[in-house]
Amino acid sequence: MSQLSVQHLLGIKYITKKDIELIFSQADQFKEVINRPIKKVPSLRDITIANIFFENSTRTRLSFELAEKRLSADVVNFSASSSSVSKGETLIDTVNNILAMKVDIVVMRHPKPGAPLFLSKHVNAQIVNAGDGAHEHPTQGLLDAFSIREKLGDLKGVKVAIVGDILHSRVAISNIYCLQKMGAEVMVCGPTTLIPKYISALNVKVEHDMKKALQWCDVANMLRIQLERQDIQYFPSLREYVMMYGLNKQILDSLKKEIIIMHPGPINRGVEITSDVADSKHSVILQQVENGVAIRMAVLYLLAS
Description:
Blueprint: H1 17-34, E1 48-53, H2 59-70, E2 74-79, H3 91-99, E3 105-110, H4 115-122, E4 126-132, H5 138-152, E5 159-163, H6 170-181, E6 185-189, E7 205-207, H7 210-216, E8 219-222, H8 238-245, H9 249-253, E9 260-262, H10 275-278, H11 285-304
Parallel strand pairs: 1-2, 1-3, 3-4, 5-6, 5-8, 6-7, 8-9
Helix pairs in contact: 1-11, 2-11, 5-6, 5-11
C-alpha cells in the first residue's frame, strides 16, 4: 500500500498532490463502507484516538468521532472548557497527560494558528489538525475538493469561487491550497475589508462583485461571516452585506448556467445563502457532510498505517 509523505496532517500546505490523490482513493473505498448495512470495519481496532477541542465544534467533532468509530478505534473525547486547561495547565502538559494513557493519534482544534504544528514537535503522537485559528482546516479542504471531484469527475481546470469572509476563514486557505494542487482555478470574492492582503501571493483571482464571480465559476463555496473572530466592524451592516454578497434563488436563476453550491457549515440562512438555495438541487451541502466522514476515515487510516 502507498503511504502518505507526512506523519501528521497539519495543513494542506505540507502535503503533496500524490498524498491528496491517495486520501481520495482511500475515501472512495470508505464511502462504500459507510453506505453498507454494517458500517464498521476493524481497520483501527488497536488504535486509540483522542479528540481534543479547545474551541466549539459540532460537525467536525461529530464527523471525526463517527469516522473513528466506523474504523473500530477506541475514542477519547476531551473538551477544554471543562478541563484543567481552565486552571492554567499548558497545552503540552495537557496532551502529554492524555498520551500517558497510551493514545496513538490526537485530533486537535485550537484557536491559536500553529498550535498543531507546535504540538507535533513536542509530543510523541500523530497530530491531525481539525482547525487552528484562522490558519488551516485541512480535512475540510479535502472533503470540499473530494465533493467537487465526485460531482464533476475531475478537478483539473474547474473554476471555484470562494465567497465571503476570506480574512477569518481557515476553510478558504485549505481550499485554495488543495484545489490549486489538484489543478483547479480559484477566485476569492468578498468586501475589500474581508480579503487578506497576502492573498495575491497565493496566485488566486480577486473579485469584489459577486455576480461576476458567479458568472465566472463552475462551483461557488459560500462562507459564513465569522462574527466570533471579528474584533472590529468590517462592513457597515449585516443587511448591506446580504444585499452585496448574499446568494438567493433569483441571482442563481439569472446566471443562465448551472453551478454547484457548497457551504462548509454552519449556515447562517438568510445571510450568505437563502434556504431555497441551500436546499436546492444545485447544493451539495449534505453530500459534503457525508464525504467528511469518508475523508476523515481515510486520513486516520493512512496516518495509522
